[in-house]
Design goal:
Layout (H helix, E strand, L loop, with lengths): L19 H6 L1 H12 L2 E6 L2 E6 L2 H10 L4 E3 L1 H11 L8 H11 L5 H6 L1 H13 L6 E3 H18 L7 H20 L11 H27 L6 H7 L10 H31 L2 H15 L13 H13 L6 E5 L3 E3 L2 E3 L4 E4 L1 H4 L19 H6 L18 H18 L12 E3 L3 E3 L4 E3 L7 H5 L1
Parallel strand pairs: 2-8
Antiparallel strand pairs: 1-2, 3-5, 4-11, 5-8, 6-7, 9-10
Helix pairs in contact: 4-9, 7-8, 7-17, 8-12, 9-10, 10-12, 12-14, 12-17, 13-14, 13-17
Length: 455
């Protein structure tokens, strides 16, 4: 008889609550400390649930790609997202996920994504033209409004700038309440009339109202405008069936939710990192000026902006907007010499793995130059996962990368990245990694605003 596998090591925690309190107080510090103390597979409890933190690239690859069919979205994720996103591709599993992702995926083909470039640059121009030299700004707020407008325009051919403030607040409310739900040792039922549940339900209903309006306008027009929403409205599967009204709404909600805040945060963290490193900023500006010669960036320029691409890769390494994601084994699975129990929560953190000195020397340093072809080829699969990997790799990966490249290129072309000299952000590891209280700065143009230059 084969010997039983040893249990995975981990903190003992409280006899009743397990590690709920330290995990809730600072999940990043908890995970970083847990890896240092216990290794690459760490077992701990949050409330009555077993969790496993996986840190080694081989184990991450095994779960996300090698044996992805044995690891579904965690029930905790589904319970949290279901009311908000329904059975959209971010929260669905099994046959529903397979069917719907086949219908959504064509909207992210390279040809369609390339066509979105002009709108991305144009909306960035409008934002910068609205700035005033010397005025204080919150770059996270501005990036959130910009990426929301881009998602609405590129994927839905809609203008939601009038709704941007409301939509942003809906997202903040939903995010805050969902985090409370994740960390609660005993989750409060959705039907329980708490103030938090009432806020969440109202925010979800209001957000869905915006989505229904956009869908209704498209269906009333009967026009295929070449955007993703048109494709979803008129798409049919191999049996000739289209998405039901509920499925269509769920997918649109998912694309709004997943398609703007993470990119806004990526750009916010890049702005901070470049602003704090004068040498990186100067080298980035030199490349952008040399390649673009003062004109707006286009999709064809991106292959020449090599250092800009390295800056973005390094930014997503050191401050990944998606700092964690979860899976759940549908049966007992052996990984790395330990059994991951059926139904346990598998916790994977890009933030933790991206700061492992085994794969990234001087992990705390912001070093875009590390991203050479040789370095990339030498990375183990599963070591760098800002967009996850495997069958459920982010569908919007290429859209988000192109968006980040074009926006950052135009921003550093026209503006000097600025944050207060003594500013250090307080990290808020919620559903995404956010800076507490935004990202303060002051508008500093590299030259006169375009309106002044033209006068």
């Amino acid at each position: 008889m084969a010997a039983a596998l040893p249990p995975a090591p981990g903190p003992r925690g409280h006899w009743f609550l397990g590690s709920t309190v330290p995990f809730r107080e600072d999940p990043i510090a908890f995970c970083m400390d847990a890896q240092q103390a216990h290794g690459d597979i760490v077992h701990f409890r949050v409330g009555f649930m077993d969790w496993f933190l996986l840190c080694h690239p081989d184990h991450i690859y095994d779960v996300l790609q090698g044996r992805a069919d044995k690891f579904w979205k965690a029930k905790l994720n589904k319970r949290i997202f279901h009311k908000f996103l329904g059975n959209g591709i971010l929260s669905a599993d099994g046959p529903v996920w397979k069917k719907n992702q086949k219908m959504v995926r064509p909207g992210f083909h390279k040809e369609r994504i390339d066509a979105y470039a002009r709108a991305m640059v144009s909306l960035t121009e409008e934002m910068v033209d609205g700035f005033v030299e010397g005025e204080p700004i919150d770059m996270f707020h501005n990036m959130t409004e910009l990426t929301l407008a881009i998602v609405a325009k590129c994927l839905f051919d809609a203008d939601v700038r009038g709704d941007a403030a409301d939509v942003g607040q809906y997202m903040v409310t939903i995010n805050d309440v969902l985090i409370e739900h994740i960390h609660a040792p005993i989750p409060v039922p959705r039907w329980w009339p708490t103030a938090a549940n009432k806020r969440k339900i109202k925010a979800i209903d209001d957000m869905r109202g915006v989505i229904r309006r956009i869908i209704g306008e498209r269906q009333a027009s009967g026009q295929d405008r070449g955007d993703l929403l048109s494709m979803l409205v008129f798409a049919q599967d191999e049996d000739g069936e289209g998405l039901s009204p509920k499925q269509l709404e769920d997918e649109a909600m998912t694309l709004f939710f997943a398609g703007h805040e993470t990119t806004a945060l990526t750009l916010t963290w890049l702005w901070y990192l470049v602003a704090k490193d004068a040498a990186v900023c100067a080298k980035l500006q030199e490349e952008v000026d040399r390649v673009l010669q003062g004109r707006e960036p286009t999709i064809d320029d991106l292959r020449e902006l090599v250092y800009l691409d390295q800056v973005i890769k390094e930014g997503m390494r050191i401050l990944p907007s998606v700092w964690t994601f979860m899976r759940q084994p549908i049966e007992d699975v052996e990984v790395g010499g330990h059994v991951l129990d059926k139904g346990a929560n598998i916790f994977i953190s890009p933030f933790v793995t991206h700061r492992d000195p085994r794969w990234f020397p001087e992990p705390e340093a912001f070093k875009p130059e590390r991203w050479t072809r040789e370095f990339i080829k030498g990375l183990p699969k599963g070591a760098y996962i800002p967009f996850s990997m495997g069958p459920r790799v982010c569908l919007g990966k290429q859209f988000a990368l192109m968006e980040a490249r074009l926006i950052l290129a135009r921003l550093v072309q026209r503006m000097i990245p600025d944050v207060p000299a003594d500013y250090e952000p307080e990290l808020m590891p919620q559903l995404a990694l956010r800076p507490r209280d935004g990202m303060p700065g002051v508008v500093r143009f590299r030259g006169p605003p375009r309106q002044e230059a033209a006068s």
